[in-house]
Amino acid sequence: MTIHTYLGDLPDGLKLGPIVAIDCETMGLNPHRDRLCLVQLSDGDGNAHLVQITQDQTAAPNLCALLTDPNTLKLFHFGRFDIAAMFHRFGALAAPVYCTKIASKLVRTFTDRHGLKNLAQELIGVDMSKYQQSSDWGASHLTDAQKDYAASDVLYLHQIKDKLDAMLARENRQEMAQSCFDFLPTRAKLDLAGWPEIDIFAH
Ligand code: MN
Question: Residue 67, CB half-sphere, CA atoms under 13 Å: how many?
């Protein structure tokens, strides 16, 4: 496994595959208050690409081209947060997207354990508990432990998606899942626009 680190944007000419796993690290969970610090990507080949986002940066043309490329599926775990974080910072709305958390909720109805660590353990037998989570992602120099953790959040999503796709097919919920994925960018925009915890479908 190789971790490539870049400052500000993906390098020109970097070709990733048709499905790119993406995760973000931020200063916290409030997208209006807490800035985006790091975007991690992997195309499922076992390697990770880490893009450090600087404090006042508002553009990342290569990353945004990938986010909006209609021929590249952006693969997230709880994409709602990441899509909002990157839209808020760069104005680029990721699409098309897939979310392993949504897929899990649609088929793994026998459990309420839909965290990434749960899915990695139960679907592909990978133990992610060795990685450390919370840390100062705004630091200009990231430690090797931080990079390993950040990379781990994108390295297994392709394998997890394969397992969930098989379950979605088995349970005949592919179409419902696709409709949820298609709505996800709008759900992220609603979060930013002032409807973060309100179910607009509720009575
Ligand atoms: Mn993460």
Answer: 27
